[in-house]
Design goal:
The longest helix is centred in the last third of the chain and has 21 residues, at 306-326. 37% of the residues lie in helices and 12% in strands. It has 335 residues and is α/β, with parallel strands linked by helices. The chain has a 6-stranded mixed β-sheet with strand order 6-5-7-8-9-10, sandwiched between helices. The chain has a 4-stranded parallel β-sheet with strand order 1-2-3-4. Strand 8 (188-192), helix 7 and strand 9 form a beta-alpha-beta unit. The protein has 13 helices and 10 strands. Residues 259-264 have low confidence and may be disordered. It is globular and about 60 Å long.
Amino acid sequence: MKMLRYKPAVPNFGDDLNPVLWPEIVPSLFSGEVEDGDVRAFVGIGTIVGIDPGQHRALHVFSSGAGYTGIERWQDCEVEYHCVRGPITARVLGIDAGCALTDGAILATMIDGFRPPMSGVSRRPVVVPHYETIAFPGWADAVQAAGFDLVDPRGTPENVIRALAGARLVLTESLHGAILADAFGVPWRPFAVSRNFSTAKWADWTASLELTVDVVLVPPPDPIQLFRFGKRAEPFGAMVRLDAEAAFAEFRNRIVSNAQPPFLKAQAKRVLEELPAFRRMLGYNVGRTAQALSDLAKLDPFLSNPGKRESLRDEMLVRLQALARRHGARAMLTT
């Protein structure tokens, strides 16, 4: 079976986890050559419900989330939802609530290569910006000034997950930074920087674990990120509750509307991006971001109930096993 996944312009460990995780758990489902005319595809980890199906006409959705595109591109496909990321995705799609489980990355604890080594692991808090955020200036300096360790989400899944699993605390703008930390029982705390942060997909996942979560707004060390993605309405330092109804509305808006900023406004932003001195005058700097991260680390962290995680993991394996058997795959790894 072909694996259908999102491939960003730069590496992102959450998306790149797909070709590492699934073949390890159920290797024969993906091994061997895909025969000509085989239109089946496995849609796994990521906010990829509605992804371009290419030539595939039979889609097996397994733990994916909705949020960026509608499913119009799937109208000529036979789609089977084995499980989705959370209850908000199920609601957006209008499918049975029982289809909602959690993100498939919860199965990463089954892979020995993701476990941290017994020695040489930092027990300091780690910071995981979104893979697009980390490309902007100042983040490495800000994290260092706070006395924390930076985890680059553009690293390989193995390296990133080992760093998360060995941390004392994970401060993350990356959704999969929280998902993997939680899977390994590491406390975490989320933060947002710009409008590029999707509270909707976070609410979808946290609801799957029955968690009530607040996201803290952290100022970037350089405002160029805000020129690109826009500033959220809430002031920096504010806490944003991940509310299910607000998330549902955000999903609907994101899927229906793909509005772009007016041309002149976009041009003005590009001019400002070329003026570092002006950007510094706006009050954004490394020290301000470092202090915000330090304050964030002092708040009570989040961590799901171990029994809930185990229950979701077991049920996901049951459904994956059923899918594998239907397609003649051999037994997978067990917990």
